[in-house]
Amino acid sequence: MKLSKEIGETLESIKLVFDNRKYLWISLIFGIVSFAVLYYLLVVQVANQDIWISVMMSGALFVTISIVSITLMSFLSAILFSMTLFHFNKFKKGSKKGFFGFIGSGIAAFGVGCPTCGAFLFGLIGMPLALTYLPWRGIELQIVGILILILSIYLTGKSLTSYCKFKVHKV
Questions:
Q1: Angle between helices 60-91 and 51-58 (to 10 degrees)
Q2: How far, in Å, CA of 125 to CA of 105, rounded?
């Protein structure tokens, strides 16, 4: 029962942020841009501009999971970005929880890409074959990153909810 209450409070915090259309538009634009960049760099670029080559190299299931993961990461990152911006604008202080979530985005992004030829981001740091050593070829990094994003949205929402309750009781 407590979990459903916590989820409800987090959804209320998200609704509070998106009641202001400015944050809704910021979130929409941020999500679309982040999806486009991640999709291009981590799926299309790895397979020389052809998604079908990526499917042949890594398999349809892996590519499908990667695209779903990129979509989910973009969606959650956009929500977190808007919540963090709202938090900063309303309370004039940064949110460490929001920064923690963007670290989750980075971790999840490392898990997307062709595990046999190396993900784009691992190649940038000199470890192009790193994903081949992981049991699920990088899917575990995607899952961890998404879980960190969800946790960060929850914690940011909790801080928004507690601050708003404090302000209401104080008046």
A1: 110
A2: 17
DSSP structure string for 8-47: HHHHHHHHHHHTSHHHHHHHHHHHHHHHHHHHIIIIIGGG
DSSP class of residue 128 equals T
CA distance 75 to 28: 8
* pLDDT beyond 60 at 170: no
Per cent of the chain over pLDDT 70 is 64
Please give the Cα distance from 11 to 42 (Å, whole number): 30
3 state SS for 44-112: HHHHCCCHHHHHHHHCHHHHHHHHHHHHHHHHHHHHHHHHHHHHHHHHCCCCHHHHHHHHHHHHHHHCC
pLDDT in tens, 2-54: 888 888 888 999 998 999 999 999 999 999 998 998 777 766 666 666 777 77
Separation between Cα atoms, residue 13 and residue 72, nearest integer Å: 19
